[in-house]
Specification:
Keywords (chains A, B, C, D): Allosteric enzyme, ATP-binding, Glycolysis, Kinase, Magnesium, Metal-binding, Nucleotide-binding, Transferase
Radius of gyration of chain A: 26 Å
Catalytic activity (chains A, B, C, D): beta-D-fructose 6-phosphate + ATP = beta-D-fructose 1,6-bisphosphate + ADP + H(+)
CATH architecture of the largest domain in chain A: 3-Layer(aba) Sandwich
Structural class of chain A: alpha/beta
Shape of chain A: globular
Largest sheet of chain A: 5 strands, mixed
CATH class of the largest domain in chain A: Alpha Beta
Number of helices of chain A: 14
CATH topology of the largest domain in chain A: Rossmann fold
Oligomer: homotetramer
Organism (chains A, B, C, D): Dichanthelium oligosanthes
Largest interface: A-B, 113 and 111 residues
Number of domains of chain A: 2
Distance between the termini of chain A: 40 Å
Helix content of chain A: 25-40%
InterPro entries (chains A, B, C, D): ATP_PFK (IPR022953), PFKA (IPR050929), Phosphofructokinase_dom (IPR000023), PKF_sf (IPR035966)
Pfam family, one (chains A, B, C, D): PFK
Chain lengths: ~475, ~475, ~475, ~475
């Protein structure tokens, strides 16, 4: 199946210096479909079947091609090795978008929106577009914001606020979330009871991996109870650590703002004698922000991410590398993802036991630790040389900004995709772009899909060629 | 092939509310390959075959998976309608990236970089990465910038400047191009003579559609003369009007900066009695910037693009729509792409004949025209009502900014992809992402590939739902 | 009086290389006082006298030094030539700030706020602080915004909107004005009738020189009718063309944002062969923005302002200067204030007669004219040389931005000064900083005080040394 | 002397509602002069006397008023209380600016520029303008940058770098300092020996209060040795804690950038249940940045500065105030200057003894301490209520940015003022604006002049009225 082999047409014909065409056969394709509401699966026909109200829009007359057809799917992988001896089967998902026929009656819909966990640029854009989209695209009148995260579902009336498009008009220009957000508080029974008692028929849960796992549990509880209530999850992780989808919202804004911190660290480093600028960027399990920020900045001499081990001292270690870099250039800039080097930091017994409210193990702060270790090492190894290290932790200045234009558009398409899917009768799904095509993915697949930086990939290779940082291999031996 | 049909598994089984899998067969796949240098096609084996020097990198030891294999391809389309009665054949391109074996000896390579046409955010990042990548990835020592566009190839020595990585270090933080750029001056014979006489062995041409067509001609002239000189084109079009690739560099930066102009127009409009803010954005043949800027901003009441006809006066026309919007909201904001409404503007005979230096027909300035027509109409129809229209043309403030982080990363991957392709012996190609995968596309395919806004697509539908602007249909009747 | 003369102590004593002290006598000082309300001048004592409610603030206990004393004045000129043969008499104004005793009863006060003319950064901050300050500092409950400028005073109820602190909370982060603003519509009788009939007891008029002249007329009409209504003017002129006060609000924000336009023009110029970047900045009668933007930017080769004549062609003219600069540096950047060169532009008979709504003569657009003249000249004089001129008019993108931090603070102090003065019984005044001290100045003095750029001063000299632009003297001969 | 007393003209005459004039007599004025070089004091006449080369500028022909005359002085105080029983004597300083005759021959001048201490926005602008101004205004060809702070004077050749205008062209767009800066290393004998041995005839020392005290010592040592070497100090303190001058450079840029941190803290606070945003801003001995940032932002609920005591717990304490604010508004934002509350923080014996390199006592980090105390208090007092505090320390992101336009202009005028003074033969002085007029002040006066926030002044009162924070009085009892 190798197209460059002589028999596949990549040969040396006289006109071969122009473009050439070669044809091959592909493995079979499997569609990984999302669940539906019981009512949407009813036989002989789903109930209700409602024509999409967009068709009756006063101004906009959608062309026939506007609606997604039942056969519209997106491919999980957009590239292959045709020469592979054992090609893996191809996977596809349903395309997101409006359907001509709804399985949900907008007039009876009652939507609940909830945000959980930490801030992320774009949260308010997602909320705005859910409110505006539900009202203006589908005429849903009952849209509620649930405050204080999942625990708001079993909170008082003050935690359930009716949301109107007029009030939501400029939310996308604001950082944070207009719904108060919290961590923890997940109590499945009380949550589902609360949803039922307040009459919600659709739930939009926006949050991190803990929130997605919670949404899976809620979805399964709905199913167990036989409820015609739909749920969709919108993954919120500024770290971009969720798999299958192309990227998470807010990520590009974070990379953009991280440039300011790296710039500042660079300025501090070059303005000092033997200066080091150290920037900690978000990324507990993955180093995407660190990696992208490094590639966008070019001022970084070393990028440390959770996916790659490193050692501090000794031949081939980080400190020696930095010392040599300083001798050569006069300064150095280090970017470290918050999850990097966790296993190197000395942890007290208490710290070994501790967990955060979402049940994650407590991360120790790699930034001050690295600064302190570096200072100690320099004082010991080079006591007569001046040395300065400036440490910057821009976390809260990054995650609190409004989304940039790219993320604003992305959040809009996400929110609208979620609404279209819910209205079509899907449930237990996540909307998201796969190789650029907005699609629906089963919530339970997303809840377990990781997205580590592929250190065999070219992007990491490019980081390496930009920074010229070593493998830290010898010292790992 | 419809996965929702009963026999394809989308049925109503008891557990059907969980994710389901369905399998189908795909049409055959055609690889659309790029040309190669004559020497790379030599038989029995290409000459030279040089191991990739990245393998000898002092710090970075690329894993076995680092190099692109001959069978690595990317898919042209990442989504399909499985239910389609007559599915179109699938198309693939070669994946971009480093190859283990080179068909070009870096020690003998002599690269020429040229930028043509107007400015675009990211130009300097592409140039920086070509210089740095050629030097640091491949050890190419002879890299030259050709000033003044294509005409620089037959210009004097002052138009051929040796470029070094140290000097290029902060180019990505600067707007514009460090090479002087011009329009026109394309003289095929003199250009190829100049390339030959200066001993260039690889040409990187960065420019718009005219520049790409020029690159095709140069490629064909190389082939006609049997020269072992490679050429690659890097499409530069802030308008995003080139097809096949996901988007053009600088586009997202442009959308980002356009927000400032729309914000200003919005402020002017809301601060006046019956105020209209009018913003002209770049986009001669396509309205991508206008569309994306509108979707990112939300303050826009009407978005006019070249792909959609509109009319000014009469029932259902633009002016009536704006008047009603003002009566309702007190103000209105209009975004117009520069290519919109060209056929409506009165053109003198001289203007009908005129062409610009690249041979394009001269565009009349839609912004002042629209402002003037609107003022005239208001004065005539509503003489007793106050009225203000503020017109903003941010063109040069947009295209002169440095690339944002997203575009900086994109430009890096583009430039490195170009280098890897050239070193592998490809020629007459364009590097670019296709559904997220960097690939090589025949130059001649790119030179004719348009990328109009798909007004049947959801993005345009979303614009319509954001702005609630009418179809302008009645008036076209 | 010369301190450097031997007898004044500036001599050559052995220890004279340390700091020395010399004492001289100053001319007498004249206090230029502002008018008061008739009730505040009543004899034997003003009526009412109300203790300042700030003294009863629940949290803040002002120290005895908090209130301005009746003798507190500020000096008009903070520097002198002691050696001057005929020193001019010194002038002083009342210091602005809270008084211990009020001449106005906050409980009966009814304030009207109006904005007139074009936008200026900080307008909304002034409005916010008037609303918040009246409520929170003095407990004034009746604060109204008058929409549509002066004509709103005789408009309908919809033009008189009650303003509350809660709604005003984030106005300072918004560009423009929350009150619709208009030009013209000044009808003295109808305005004063409107003020009286709506029961306003204090008027805050924010606007340009026309608005200040209107405020003088209103003040005099109040006096003529014997009304106990006070009026204060807050000069709004982004051009900084009002005298006596240190600078006008929004000016520094404008200079800041103008950098973006100059940067863009500079990038366009350096990226072209023989490129010129041309930026028009605000400034009809004065060139302060052009001058400050030039000094802050350093990329400017020539700065043209209304206060300095120039000529285009011939020996020593602008075009020759630019040509030489291009030959030397490869490019040039020109900043032109909108009022520069008005007498050079060919004006049709119609244009000679035209006036704008505020009665100003119509300014012709110097930017496109200069661009066109320059292009014509180059084509004639240097037909075989490439040439590009890019013209940027950032006016609406500058004036619509929110105030920066410096201007936000300034607007706050201005608004609070206005309130304190009104509450003390002053009227017909303008608040403003004089050599850094906030003071009260008679409205009629401000209405005629011009603030041209002092071309004999060092700041203009610095522009000249930064740009090295010539005197354009020869050509004026 | 009270102008409002009947006999001083502020009376109740019929036309008294117009502006009035009153005349008074002022106390005598004392000129506080700066030292001069021995050669400039030589008798019978200074040697050399060189005409200012600006008069021979090829393009610019300075008017007669261009040069500062010997009698030009600026007033120390621009406001008075005329009613004061015992008015203090008036003080004046020499105006800064170019003199017609120089006491220094530019052809023999050899200038040394040094930066000491931490970064501050505008450092590079000052350096740029010293280099460009010395070259272009006066034709000084020998300008050197001394690296590594004061210790560079006795360092090797690599610490003495010749500086040229072309290379300095874009320094003002860069943060940090192009000269490596350090703290400490002050060794008077070795510094002056180094200055003499390298033939420097003028020294420009840019740094904080320690640096200014060092400059006084160097000046006195020059005097003691009878050297014709001049020294000027340019105070660098982003905190604005130096007296006499209006403000220090970089301060306004710092206030501007601090807004971003406050915005982020505000977003974090409002997005949480019972959220507090805590921002630490620079200001060891003075709270100017905190105060100005608070006044510019309006989102701050409490501003803590070194000049005002506060207490944490108990009735009327900070924590109770914040709890009440949260109950009322749902969130709170606190800005704390780094020097605030130092006496409240528990200090170990080691910490009590510690000093930094400049000999200052070590400041403990008030931010994390306050965050921790607050968390402990909440957990104890309100264990059942959710609570979040997000802490932001933007220090290095603030001080590393380039100067904004306002500071760029200011730095230019400072640098040029320094050069003009040195060329006129002055030494041991500091240039700086006094009530808006650039002046020369004896270095020894500046070295001891503090600039605390005047908490009796209106600006602090405004902070109090903006934040409504209490006096913390009860708890201090």
């Amino acid at each position: 199946m190798d197209p460059t082999a002589p028999n596949s047409g990549g040969g040396a014909a006289a006109d071969a210096t122009g473009p050439t065409n070669t044809t091959v056969t592909l493995p079979p394709l499997t569609l990984r479909d999302v669940p539906r509401l019981p009512s949407a699966l009813a036989s002989p026909s789903p109930s209700p079947v409602v024509p999409n109200p967009i068709s009756r829009h006063p101004y906009f007359h959608p062309p026939s091609t506007f609606y997604i057809s039942p056969g519209d799917v997106s491919l999980r992988h957009a590239f292959f090795d045709l020469a592979s001896a054992s090609p893996s089967p191809l996977l596809a998902y349903r395309r997101a978008g409006p359907r001509g026929d709804l399985a949900v009656d907008p007039a009876r819909a009652r939507a609940a929106l909830v945000t959980c966990g930490g801030l992320c640029p774009g949260l308010n854009t997602v909320l705005r577009e859910l409110v505006v989209g539900l009202h203006e695209l589908y005429g849903v009148r009952d849209v509620f914001g649930v405050a204080a995260g999942y625990r708001g579902f079993y909170g008082g009336d003050e935690d359930h606020v009716r949301l109107e498009p007029a009030a939501a008009d400029d939310w996308h220009k604001k950082g944070g979330t207009v719904l108060k957000t919290t961590r923890g508080g997940f109590d499945l029974g009380k949550i589902v009871d609360g949803i039922v008692s307040r009459g919600y028929t659709q739930v939009y849960a926006i949050g991190g991996d803990g929130t997605m796992r919670g949404a899976v549990a809620i979805f399964q509880e709905f199913k167990r109870r036989g409820l015609n209530i739909s749920i969709t999850g919108i993954p919120k992780t500024v770290d971009n650590d969720i798999g299958i989808i192309d990227r998470s919202f807010g990520f590009q804004t974070a990379v953009e703002i991280a440039q300011q911190a790296i710039d500042a660290a660079h300025v501090e480093a070059v303005s000092a004698v033997n200066g080091i600028g150290l920037v900690k960027l978000m990324g507990r399990s993955t180093g995407h922000i660190a990696l992208h920020a490094t590639l966008s900045s070019r001022d970084v001499d070393c990028c440390l991410i959770p996916e790659v081990d490193f050692c501090l001292e000794g031949k081939g270690g980080l400190f020696e590398f930095l010392y040599e870099r300083i001798k050569k250039k006069g300064h150095a800039v280090v970017v470290v993802a918050e999850g990097a080097g966790q296993e190197l930091i000395h942890r007290t017994d208490d710290q070994k036991r501790e967990q955060d409210e979402s049940g994650n193990i407590v991360f120790l702060d790699v930034g001050p630790w690295l600064k302190s270790e570096l200072g100690r090492w320099w004082k010991r190894e080079h006591p007569d040389e001046l040395f300065t290290v400036k440490y910057i932790d821009p976390t809260y200045m990054i995650r609190a900004v409004p989304a940039n234009a790219t993320d604003n558009l992305y959040c809009t398409l996400l929110a609208h995709s979620a609404i279209h899917g819910i209205m079509a009768g899907f449930t237990g799904f996540v909307p998201g772009p796969i190789n650029g095509t907005y699609s629906y993915i089963p919530l339970e697949d997303i809840a377990v899909a990781k997205n580590p930086v592929d250190v065999n990939d070219h992007k990491w290779a490019w980081v390496r060629s930009v920074t010229n940082q070593p493998d830290f291999l010898m010292s790992q031996a």
